[in-house]
Design goal:
Helix content: 55-70%
Largest sheet: none
Distance between the termini: 30 Å
Structural class: mainly alpha
Oligomer: single chain
Order of helices and strands: HHHHHHHHHH
Number of domains: 2
Shape: elongated
Number of strands: 0
């Protein structure tokens, strides 16, 4: 299972808060406190809550594009969730939402074109393509008994190596904000 990063935790915190009120009423302090982090930690990962939103959309769209290709469609809905209920408010809501999706697509395309994340992820998960059990896991044909046997035969690695999470995040930041 993938370990959650601080960015992931901040995004989850933001999503939880966004279920209860509009984003314009959510503060960085609330996002940080909701997940047990300080605002200083938040500031090390994002410039502000809008930076968090763009990062979240870009990451999601990059994952979508890399899995199913560029020929995708989006369903976007701008519901009245706050006192802003005029046609003008809804118009701006749609425009802002579409602009955010567009920016996410632009950043996702840059991440894919850059290619460094793909290389690092291939290196990180090489055993899924270079071993028999890895192929079975990817093809969803591995049984629990096979996995248990494989785990029993494995010894604890002396040095499991680095997941290079910081490098991955640096590449994301460089491509998205550089």
């Amino acid at each position: 299972m993938k370990r959650k990063t601080a960015r992931d935790i901040f995004v989850e915190s933001f999503h939880a808060l966004a279920q209860t009120r509009s984003i314009d009423r959510i503060t960085v302090r609330e996002i940080a406190e909701n997940c047990g982090y300080s605002t200083a930690t938040f500031d090390r990962h994002f410039m502000d809550k809008y930076d968090l939103i763009v990062w979240d959309y870009a990451r999601g769209i990059e994952q979508l594009i890399s899995r199913i290709g560029i020929n995708v469609g989006f369903y976007f809905d701008s519901k009245n969730r706050r006192p802003s209920s005029t046609y003008e408010d809804m118009f701006y809501g749609y425009i802002l939402g579409m602009d955010t999706f567009a920016l996410g697509l632009i950043k996702a395309a840059k991440l894919i074109e850059d290619g460094r994340l793909d290389i690092l992820l291939r290196e990180r998960y090489i055993s899924y393509t270079s071993t028999e059990i890895g192929h079975k896991i990817r093809n969803h044909t591995a049984t629990l008994a096979e996995l248990a046997d494989c785990a029993a035969c494995m010894k604890k690695p002396e040095n499991p190596g680095s997941g290079r999470q910081e490098l991955l995040e640096q590449i994301m930041n460089e491509v998205m904000f550089g």
